[in-house]
Specification:
Number of strands: 8
Low-confidence stretches: 306-312
Strand content: 5-15%
Distance between the termini: 38 Å
Structural class: alpha/beta
Strand order of the largest sheet: 5-4-1-2-3-8
Radius of gyration: 21 Å
Largest sheet: 6 strands, mixed
Order of helices and strands: EEHHHHHHEHEHEHHEEEH
Helix content: 40-55%
Bound molecules: zinc ion
Number of helices: 11
Length: 312
């Protein structure tokens, strides 16, 4: 039995606020689930983040208030939190009095979402994400699946579905193929022994996609996807709260890293997680970049040839 944790990065709307929409899934055999959870918990503890969610997009930002604190790096965690909160409180009070309510709401949200990480400097936060990506990259038992849609090349007038529907169908198809490939073929096991590797999808709880993906999965079970019949994935996706499930946070990290590689050519984290992309016959089949046919990124290159290589 295998569990594939799914999360997204970027906006599925065309054009939306990002050039790419990425839906990523990280699959682990259930007998390795505890190993993964323990390893992530250990890294979080090293950064005093035991009860915090690893929300990579918020962690990787630069926090202006930290830059304004003199000698921020030399302060201890308690002092850092106190100094940053002091600046933030003053800024919120100033914005509260200003006529622009929209700006106040944006800033308030940024402060809330980054609150768990303000005791860590920008370099420490980058190191935290790198440590997690390194751990994921070493999980030889795990497989990464993803559909990365370049919305510049997504033509809504010709497409039969939206970017997020296309991404989900692609991800389900590739996961199904993977489960089929690792299932022992007839005759390899004694009669009566279970011969199929089953998989389950676990999705970050997002009300707008929950119903859509549940309905899509029901239709895939009945009619197959465009590419394959569904014989190994069981049930409709289960939806969980990402705050409570570390592995969903890892799917979030993978989606973020893939998107940042494609949009900003950020290679450091990409190099760490991309080796986990599912491969078959020497070709990367688990991760696809939906874009112009002449794209020379590492994902497109490794779709065509093997093994994948990045420019040094
Ligand atoms: Zn590409």
């Amino acid at each position: 039995m295998y569990i594939c944790y799914i999360d997204e990065s970027g906006t599925p709307e065309v054009p939306g606020t990002t050039s790419h929409y990425v839906l990523a899934g990280i699959s682990v055999p259930i007998w390795f689930w505890r190993t993964c959870e323990d390893e992530i918990a250990l890294i979080k503890r090293r950064y005093a983040l035991e009860s915090a969610e690893i929300h990579t997009g918020w962690i990787m930002r630069r926090y202006q208030e930290q830059i304004r604190v003199p000698n921020f790096e030399s302060l201890n965690y308690t002092q850092r939190i106190s100094e940053v909160e002091k600046i933030r409180r003053a800024e919120l009070l100033r914005l509260q009095a200003a006529p622009n309510r929209k700006r106040f709401k944006q800033v308030d949200k940024t402060y809330r979402m980054t609150r768990p990480y303000i005791h860590l400097s920008y370099d420490e936060r980058r190191r935290l994400i790198k440590d997690i990506a390194t751990a994921v990259g070493n999980w030889r038992f795990a497989r990464l699946f993803a559909e990365c849609i370049d919305k510049v090349h997504f033509d809504p007038t010709r497409a039969t579905c939206t970017p997020d529907e296309q991404a989900f169908e692609q991800l389900v198809s590739r996961y199904e193929r993977y489960l089929d490939n690792i299932s022992p073929s007839q005759g390899q096991l004694p009669p009566g022994q279970l011969q199929t590797s089953f998989g389950l999808l676990i999705h970050d709880n997002n009300e707008t996609v929950a119903k859509k993906h549940t309905d899509l999965m029901k239709s895939f079970h009945n009619n197959g996807t465009l590419w394959t019949r569904i014989q190994h994935i069981i049930e409709t996706p289960l939806f969980v709260n990402s705050e409570l499930t570390s592995m969903i946070q890892i799917a979030d990290l993978c989606a973020y890293v893939l998107r940042r590689y494609l949009e900003n050519q950020e290679e450091e984290l990409f190099r760490l997680i991309f080796p986990r992309a599912d491969r078959f016959g020497g070709q990367t089949v688990g991760v696809r970049h939906f874009t112009a046919s002449r794209c020379t990124c590492a994902i497109c290159s490794s779709h065509r040839t093997a093994p994948f290589s990045l420019t040094p």
